[in-house]
C-alpha cells in the first residue's frame, strides 16, 4: 500500500502543474484584464475598486481628458486612448504584465511552491488571508450539509431497501425526486419567504452568519445564535444531495441483500438487524462511506454563489465569483492552486477509505 500511495503522491505534481498551465493559458485570451478594469475606472466607465498601491493613487490623479491623443490606435488596450503611455506602463509594471507570459507563469509557480500566494490586485490583502477570512462560511455550509445528508440519507436508504416496493418506498421516492428537481436557489427563496420575514413568519434571520452582538453573548448564546443563522442556508444547500445518497444507499443494500451470504446468515437463524448491520452494512456502505471525503470537499468548495448571495454570506463562492469578474488573477490562481491540490489529496484519501472500510481491497495487486 505504501508504494501505491507514493505513486499517487508523485502523480499529484504533474497533474497540478497541468491544471495551472491550462488555466493560465486560457486567461491570456480572455478580454478585460485587470489593466482594462483600472482604465475603465479612470475613465469613469467601470466599477470602482479600492486603491492599488502605487498605480491606484496615480490612477486617481489622472483625469480622462489628460494626455488626449497620447496613445494611438496601436495600443493593445482598446479603452486606453486618451491616457498617457507612462500611466499604462506603470500599470503593467504594477501588475507584472511587463514580463512575457512564460516568465510570469514560472515566477508564479515558484512562489506557490514556497507558499507565497501574493496579494489581491484590488483589496491589497494576501490571498491566503482572504481565503481564511471566508472559511467560516464555507466550513459551516460544507460540514453541516454533508453530515446532515449522511445522517438522513443512510438510514432512509436502508429503510427503503428493506421495504422495497412498499408504499413507504414509493412515497419517499416521490418526495426525494421532487426535492432533487427543485433548484437550490429556488428552495432558498421559498425558505426566505416563509421563515425569514418575506411574507409569513419571522423565525430565522435574513442575513449573516452571526448577530451583531454575537461577541457579547455567553458561550451557549453564541452556539444558539450560530445555529439560528445557519439553519436556512444549510437546508437550502443540503436538499438536493438527499436524492443521490439515499438512492445510492438503497441500491447498494438491495444488491447485497440478494447475495448468498445473506441467505446463509438468515438460514442460521440470525436476527434481521444482525444480518443487516453485522453482515450487509460493511459491504453495502463501501462506496457510500469511502466517498465521504470527496462529497465533503465538493459541498465545501462548491457552495452555490446564489445561495451565499441570498443569505448575505461572504464565503469562498462569492470570493471566487468576484475575483473572476474583477480579473483578480492572484486570487483566482492562488485559490485554484490550493483547492486543486486539496482535491487531488482528497482523491488519495478516498482510496484509503476504501481500504479502511474493507481491508480485503489491495490497490497494488489490482494495478499489478
Please give a structural write-up.
With 368 residues, the protein is mainly α. It has 2 domains: 27-98, no CATH class; 128-367, MetI-like (MetI-like fold). It contains 18 helices and no strands. Helix 7 packs antiparallel against helix 10 (241-257) and helix 11 packs antiparallel against helix 12 (272-284). Residues 46-74 have low confidence and may be disordered.
Briefly note the CATH topology name of the largest domain.
Answer: MetI-like fold
Number of domains: 2
Main pleated-sheet profile: none
Number of strands: 0
Instruction: Specify the number of helices.
Output: 18
Distance between the termini: 12 Å
Overall shape: it is: globular
Short description:
With 368 residues, the chain is mostly helical. The protein has helices spanning 2-27, 34-42, 55-61, 85-95, 101-113, 127-162, 167-181, 184-195, 219-238, 241-257, 260-267, 272-284, 286-290, 292-301, 305-310, 316-325, 329-357, 363-367.
Chart the SSEs and their pairings.
Layout: H1 2-27, H2 34-42, H3 55-61, H4 85-95, H5 101-113, H6 127-162, H7 167-181, H8 184-195, H9 219-238, H10 241-257, H11 260-267, H12 272-284, H13 286-290, H14 292-301, H15 305-310, H16 316-325, H17 329-357, H18 363-367
Helix pairs in contact: 1-17, 6-9, 6-10, 6-14, 6-17, 7-10, 8-9, 10-12, 11-12, 14-17, 16-17
Task: Provide keyphrases for this structure.
368 residues, mainly alpha, MetI-like fold, 18 helices, Microcin C ABC transporter permease YejB, transport, MetI-like_sf
